[in-house]
Amino acid sequence: TADGERRGFLSGALPAAAAACASLVLPPRPPAARAADAPGGSGSTVPYRDEDYGFQISVPATWEVSRQRLSGRRRGVFFTDPGSRSGDD
């Protein structure tokens, strides 16, 4: 019957919908956290605090930091994995 077909469809669709919603609600892990857990990663992180903008992030302890002054009193702060290759290699 049509009612039985609809119930069968809904019973299969509800778990899929719940899984889709969970993936939207749970944020992905930040790249720094994934890198620290990766094979060969140090596993330890250090905090980076930006007092001017009031935020803090954790970066892998083995990553290098470089700071650049930009025009208009702006600045750039970059974190790089010393083991990664640049696009120029």
If you had to describe this structure to a student in words, what would you say it looks like?
With 89 residues, the chain is an alpha+beta fold. Helix content is 35%, strand content 27%. The chain has two helices and four strands. The chain has helices spanning 2-25, 31-37; strands at 45-50, 55-60, 64-69, 75-80. The strands form two sheets. It has a two-stranded antiparallel sheet. A two-stranded antiparallel sheet has the order 3-4. A hairpin with a 5-residue loop joins strand 3 and strand 4 (75-80). The chain is extended and about 55 Å long.
Distance between the termini: 64 Å
Which structural class should the secondary elements be placed in? alpha+beta
Helix content: 25-40%
In N-to-C order, the SSE pattern is: HHEEEE
Number of strands: 4
- Outline: extended
The low-confidence parts are: none
Question: How is the largest sheet built, in terms of strand order?
Answer: 1-2
Q: Give the count of helical stretches.
A: 2
| Percentage of residues in strands | 25-35%
Task: Report Rg.
Answer: 22 Å
Largest sheet data: 2 strands, antiparallel
